[in-house]
Inverse folding.
């Protein structure tokens, strides 16, 4: 979900987290205090989808522009489609405040916590190969993890480990925002987390946590014999036929791309975060993609074409988190929409699929600044789905800490 350094979005700064820079990957919608696995309302599965007529397109234009104005979003792009219903692909606003260059649908973007879906897909491929067991303790693979003999791979992927989120550590925040170009190693990120006590017993509660993904990324490296970026680029991105998606090794950012704007800064003032090094997000939020690839990936991750049917079924088995929404293995289901959101300083994304209508929705924007505590990506997705799928309206909690 997002990545916000101090927020944890199911997708944001923090990587969809909270720095929560990765909003659910810091900024994401699921953050905040741990939540117990209480019974939630069933996920809606109606799947009705409006015909994308010119009249509906005008409604969508108006809804997007309204959210842009209210949330002061510089630029946004949207891709929405379903078989037999038409397609809506459009960009609004500006990509660069300095030049006034317009937002365009072919620009690269940092995807924050949507990265989590790639990392967990890589992990589940190794499960299919018999190299990793979902119910193995993380201690089987990685030494020094608090409660590591009792926290399972499955609990890490479903955000129920009880480990502290490194992006919620004040020292991490200071280090990142003092030097956004700094390169963090996975071991340094884990050190920020492991100096804190565990929050709860393994499996007892849900808590969106970037630490979990750093550990899963290390497991992928250990069991594949490859660096995580190489494995994901070769074994996930390429087979998924994604042309403009990559796991970077540094701060590289392919052209063309929009500039990103964030207030996750030491001063609290808005800054251009375009070239900040995403190493702090690594397996939880460092990847880059574009609108078309995010649309394609939504269907791939929701239908499991890179995994066996049995493993995909395990992935989609969600634990209720709020009425109508739950979190599975590195993926969420909110009112029938399956996928993830992402947020890290300067950028937010949504990549989701509605199986009953075979509909895809991808959203990219070049800011992660909240409006009244809500991720702007959630506001866009909610406004759009209210029009085209009124029985399946995308909704996430207002404060997601992926910190």
């Amino acid at each position: 979900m997002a990545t916000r350094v101090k927020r944890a979005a199911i997708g944001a700064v923090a990587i969809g987290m909270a720095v929560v820079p990765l909003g659910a990957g810091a900024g994401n919608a699921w953050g905040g205090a741990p939540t117990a696995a209480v019974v939630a309302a069933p996920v809606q599965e109606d799947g009705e989808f409006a015909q994308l007529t010119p009249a509906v397109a005008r409604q969508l234009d108006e809804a997007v522009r309204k959210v842009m104005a209210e949330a002061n979003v510089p630029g946004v792009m949207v891709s929405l489609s379903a078989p037999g219903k038409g397609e809506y692909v459009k960009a609004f606003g500006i990509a660069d405040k300095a030049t006034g260059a317009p937002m365009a649908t072919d620009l690269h973007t940092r995807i924050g916590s949507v990265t989590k879906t790639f990392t967990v897909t890589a992990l589940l491929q190794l499960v299919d190969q018999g190299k990793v067991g979902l119910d193995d303790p993380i201690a089987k693979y990685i030494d020094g993890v608090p409660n590591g003999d009792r926290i399972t791979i499955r609990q890490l992927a479903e955000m129920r480990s009880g480990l502290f989120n490194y992006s919620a550590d004040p020292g991490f925040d200071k280090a990142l925002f003092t030097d956004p170009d700094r390169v963090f190693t996975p071991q340094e990120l884990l050190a920020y987390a492991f100096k804190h006590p565990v929050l709860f017993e393994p499996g007892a509660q849900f808590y969106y946590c970037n630490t979990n993904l750093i550990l899963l990324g290390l497991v992928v490296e250990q069991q594949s014999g490859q660096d995580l970026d190489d494995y994901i680029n070769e074994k996930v991105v390429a087979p998924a036929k994604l042309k403009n998606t990559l796991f970077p090794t540094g701060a590289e950012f392919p052209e063309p791309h929009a500039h990103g704007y964030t207030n996750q800064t030491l001063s609290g003032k808005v800054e251009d975060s375009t070239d900040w090094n995403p190493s702090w997000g690594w397996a939880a939020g460092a990847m880059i993609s574009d609108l078309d690839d995010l649309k394609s990936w939504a269907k791939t991750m929701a239908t499991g074409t890179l995994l066996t049917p049995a493993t995909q079924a395990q992935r989609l088995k969600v634990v209720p988190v709020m009425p109508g929404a739950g979190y599975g293995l590195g993926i969420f289901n909110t009112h029938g929409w399956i996928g993830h959101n992402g947020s890290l300083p300067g950028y937010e994304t949504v990549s989701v699929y509605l199986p009953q209508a075979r509909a895809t929705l991808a959203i990219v924007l070049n800011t992660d600044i909240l409006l009244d505590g809500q991720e702007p990506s959630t506001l866009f997705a909610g406004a759009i789905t209210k029009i085209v799928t009124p029985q399946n309206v995308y909704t996430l909690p207002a404060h997601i800490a992926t910190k």
Remarks:
- Confidence is low (pLDDT under 50) at residues 6-32, 36-42, 399-403.
